[in-house]
Each structure stands twice: as structure tokens, then as C-alpha cells.
Amino acid sequence: MDRTKKIMRSAGFTLVELMIAIGIISIILAIAVPNLQRWLPAYRLKGATQDMLGNLNRAKMEAIKRNRLCTVMFGGDGDVFDYIVFVDDDGDLEHDAGEAAIATVRLDDYQSVNLDSVDFTDNDDGKPAIAYRPNGLIRDNDGGIEYASDIDGFNIVFSNTNGTVKTVVISKVGNARIEM
């Protein structure tokens, strides 16, 4: 009987041990949470720019694969999309009914990330758009590429609430990259 009581008494944790464990966890959380809150906007900005880069490369590959124009158009209503990648059957750089959407992106999905600027030429609807041709090169609404000779290409600029800025640059030949 005495042996059973000793085993029962030693099983589990005392109230003091639990309070010490809770105190240690609280201190760790007090240190970690502010760092996490500073880290999240940078992580979301990185995700938004990498997704933009991936969607540009996807548009280029789809244009080559399908032997059709694939357009990236900004300026959706925000409820459905902020930018869309689609197969542009009629070549007008406008998303029309029946044109297959490859990707639609809402920037609200990247909390604390803002789209600061897109320097593409506007389509006839007044929305910035650029298309990849079946040969992988880019074109604007006028059928060519209009930019000053000293400009490296087109820029899509994102920022976050911490003031960090990242730019997705599309070169003159349609290659995209991320710049800090």
C-alpha cells in the first residue's frame, strides 16, 4: 500500500512546476512575437514578388507552348483579381469573355504588401498590360515596345508596411528578375 501511494504522489507535475513552465513560455513568446511581426511583412513582400516573377515566366512559357499571345494585365476590381494572366485570343491585351485565365491574383492575399507602380503601357481599357508573343518576346498595346533607350525594361514595384521595396523588372527581351 505504501508503495502505491508513493507512485501516485510522484506522478504528474506540481503547481509550482507548471507555473515555472508557463512563465518560461511567456518570456519566450514575449521575445518572439515582436520579431515575428517585423518579419511577416518582409516574408509577404518576398512571396508577392516571387509569385509575380513566376506568373510572368508562366505567361512566357504558355505563349511559347500554345503559340498564342499570353497577356499580364493589371487593374482588376480587387474583388476578383488585381492582376490576371490569360491567353489573349484576339491580341487586344484585354481580358474578354471566353479567354482562358492562366492565373488570377488578389494582392489582398499578401497582407501588408502594396503595388506601388506598373510602368506598362495601358490597353484600350486604360489598364496596364503587357503580352508575351509565341517567340517569348514582349509587346505592348501598340504592337511594339515603347520605352526610352536608357531604360532597362518594364518595372513592377511592390512595397510593404516596413518601407521595403522590391521591383520585378522585365527586360527588353522578356526576361524577368527581382531587384531589391
Beta-strand content: 25-35%
Q: What's the N-to-C terminus distance?
A: 72 Å
The main sheet comes to: 5 strands, antiparallel
**Order of H and E elements:** HHEEEEEEEEE
Summarize the structure.
Helices cover 34% and strands 26% of the residues.
Q: Which key features would you list for this structure?
A:
180 residues, alpha+beta, 5-stranded antiparallel β-sheet, 4-stranded antiparallel β-sheet
Structural overview:
The chain is an alpha+beta fold and 180 residues long. The chain has one domain: minor pseudopilin epsh fold, CATH 3.55.40. The chain contains two helices and nine strands. Strands 3-2-1-5-6 form a five-stranded antiparallel beta sheet, covered by helices on one side. The protein has a four-stranded antiparallel beta sheet with strand order 4-7-8-9, with helices on one face. A hairpin with an 8-residue loop joins β1 (70-74) and β2 (83-87). It starts with a helix and ends with a strand. 24% of the residues are buried. The model has no long low-confidence stretch (mean pLDDT 85).
Topology, pairings included?
Blueprint lengths: L1 H9 L4 H52 L3 E5 L8 E5 L13 E5 L7 E6 L10 E4 L5 E2 L13 E8 L4 E7 L4 E4 L1
Antiparallel strand pairs: 1-2, 1-5, 2-3, 4-7, 5-6, 7-8, 8-9
